[in-house]
Amino acid sequence: MTASTSTHRTTISDYFSLIKFSHTVFALPFALVGFFLAVWHNGYPFEWRLLLLVVLCMVFARTSAMAFNRYSDRKLDARNERTRKREIPSGRIRAGAALALSLSAAAMFVLTTWFINPLCFYLSPVALAIILGYSYTKRFTAWSHFVLGLGLSLAPVGAYLAVAGVFSALPIMLAAAVLFWVAGFDIIYALQDTEFDREQRLKSVPALAGNTGALVLSSLMHGLTAAALVAAGILGGFGYLYWMGAGAFVFMLIYQHTLVKPRDLRRVNAAFFTANGIASVIFAAFAIADLWRSYDGSGISN
User: Fold this and answer.
1) What local confidence, expressed as pLDDT, does residue 274 receive?
2) Is 102 among the domain residues?
3) CA atoms within 13 A on the CB side of 207
4) What is the spatial distance between Cα 157 and Cα 89, in angstroms, rounded to a whole number?
5) Region for 202 from its dihedrals, namely left if φ exceeds 0, alpha if ψ lies in -120 to 50, beta otherwise
6) How many CB atoms lie within 10 A of CB 230?
7) Measured between alpha carbons, how far is residue 159 from residues 18, 52, 172 in Å?
8) What total of structural domains would you count in the chain?
9) Is 300 part of any domain?
10) Is the pLDDT of residue 84 over 90?
């Protein structure tokens, strides 16, 4: 550690950078769709308190997962040219502080679920096992991208459970869309580390199949995302606003694949954050608007 990093005073912005708070736009919009699906599609009562608890669960779970990921990957990040300037390898945040943040956020997540309902509380350790366990999966499987997708796919199902207290096919269908979507764009993001992963004997789809094969699989996953959104739209009997949002989402999926080529990875970050962040927000806005538009107050959408 250099003298400049050893004397660095950790700031709030360092912690926000550590957990990539801006990336909340990936899963939170789908959690809101799951919440309002229960309220405006299935007629469960709306409560501001419950909405706040759902948002807090999302924030705490994601904070715990990201801080733990940075902690578990700290030695790998220090060896990787692309990541060695991250907060822990650069000395801006101590490893122990990141771990403490992760464990504290995990505890707050479980505590928050206690105030929602018993089912969410009992399932909270399962959710934590998935989102924290993801950080170690690339040590032994190339399909770690799908574990990440599974973790984020809990958002619409968890939010629905918070309101309804029971499982339902429609939020599970939306969860499938999230799983395939996240796995697909995480494969694209992993293209940046293909050679590093091979050198360090880490597992990833790009390291296993090469950049061309990885992009083909990513395209397939995003095709399944589109299919899941269509199936959810039909199953839920959604109106034109939902279909506009789903169409915009699929367009952004196609667009991100035009940004990245097997031998040209310069626009990976634009594909990863910009395209996917916009896609998630637009879809959620239109889907929630459609739910509100069609709600007649009786508990079932028209």
Assistant:
1) 84
2) yes
3) 21
4) 35
5) beta
6) 15
7) 25, 11, 11
8) 1
9) no
10) yes
> Would you say residue 302 lies in a domain?
no
Query: Is it the case that residue 176 has pLDDT exceeding 80?
Result: yes
- State both tokens at 229: 């959104």
Residues 6+ positions from 58 with CB-CB distance below 8 Å:
24, 27, 28, 31, 155
Question: Helix, strand, or coil here: 301?
Answer: strand
Q: Supply the DSSP symbol for 300.
A: S
Question: Per the structure block, which two tokens stand in for 180?
Answer: 């395939």
Query: In terms of pTM, does the model score above 0.70?
Result: yes
pLDDT of 17 reads 86
DSSP 166: S
> Residue 5 falls within a domain, yes or no?
no
Residues 58-74: pLDDT tens digits? 999 999 999 999 999 99
DSSP assignment of 108-143 equals HHHHHHHTT-HHHHHHHHHHHHHHHHHHHHTTT-TT
- The sign of the torsion formed by the CA atoms of 276, 282, 285, 287 equals negative
Would you tell me how many other CB atoms lie within 10 Å of the CB of residue 122? 10
- Token representation of residue 20: 């990539």
Which residue type occupies 183? A
Domain residues for the domain of 220 are 12-294
Measured in degrees and rounded to the nearest 5, phi and psi for residue 301 equal -65, 145
Residue 296 pLDDT > 80: no
Secondary structure E strands in 160-200: none
Token output for 202 = 């880490």
